[in-house]
Design goal:
- This protein has helices spanning about 15-25, 25-40, 70-80, 95-100, 150-155, 175-180, and strands spanning about 45, 50-55, 60-65, 85-95, 110-120, 120-130, 160-170, 190-200, 205-210, 215-220.
- The protein is elongated.
- Helix content is about 20%, strand content about 35%.
- It folds into two domains: about 15-60, Winged helix-like DNA-binding domain superfamily/Winged helix DNA-binding domain (Arc Repressor Mutant, subunit A); about 60-220, Chorismate lyase-like (Chorismate lyase).
């Protein structure tokens, strides 16, 4: 609602009573939703005055990182149109880092796919995907990678990504990446580094996705153990 009705930072939100009527849910449900938004600093509570939007949601794409999905799937869920530019696709010999990430033998060939994911002409995600050449079935060229890589792996190569282990950090672009991302190099980028496993616990994809820090927010539900 906050996005669709074009609320801006500082705008006052409807009262709890109005939200209950609008969404047709209980007051407890509304209060829990508002509590979560407050904890994430999306809304601010000013006692005696009400609740106000704390950030301009039109500038951010907010995504739940507990759900494993491709960039293509994520863009669809967020309701944005995304264009894919395949920057490079090559076959090389795995270095020691990739060997360790993908449990490969020395000298084993790998495929390296680099893509810029754009909306409104601006790169918002730059993806580097590395996978063993041995899982590729048939001849693939740069045009093969316009859509979801996870869907391609599952439908054409018979390898389904079941889960991943991820590390999220903020980084500045290297000089090499700055040359490849020509339309935007400022600010920090949120990097999601993932090792993706198939249903047999075999690592089949090592990826580094660079998300523009001024465009993305990730959220996760954490429970006390």
């Amino acid at each position: 609602m906050l996005k669709d009705k074009y609320y801006r930072a500082g705008d006052r939100l409807p009262s709890e009573e109005n939200l209950v009527e609008l969404f047709g849910v209980s007051r407890a449900t509304i209060r829990e939703a508002l509590k979560l938004l407050e904890e994430e600093k999306i809304i601010l509570v000013r006692h005696g005055l009400g609740r106000f939007l704390g950030v301009d949601l039109s500038n951010y794409l907010t995504e739940d990182v507990t759900s494993l999905q491709s960039v293509t799937e994520m863009a669809g869920n967020l309701g944005i149109e995304i264009q894919t530019e395949v920057v490079d696709f090559s076959t090389e010999t795995a270095d020691e880092l990739v060997q360790a990430r993908l449990n490969l033998q020395p000298g084993e060939p790998i495929c390296i796919l680099q893509r810029a994911r754009k909306t409104a002409g601006e790169t918002i995600i730059f993806s580097i995907d590395i996978f063993p050449h041995s899982i590729v079935h048939g001849q693939e060229d740069m045009n093969s990678f316009q859509g979801s890589l996870l869907a391609l792996m599952e439908k054409r190569w018979g390898r389904r990504v079941a889960y991943s282990r991820a590390v999220i950090s903020a980084e500045q672009l290297t000089a090499d990446l700055s040359r490849k991302i020509r339309d935007y190099t400022g600010a920090s980028w949120i990097v999601m580094e993932q090792i993706n496993y198939d249903e047999n616990d075999f690592p089949i994809l090592y990826s580094r996705d660079y998300h523009r820090g001024d465009k993305f927010r990730f959220h996760v539900l954490r429970r006390r153990r």
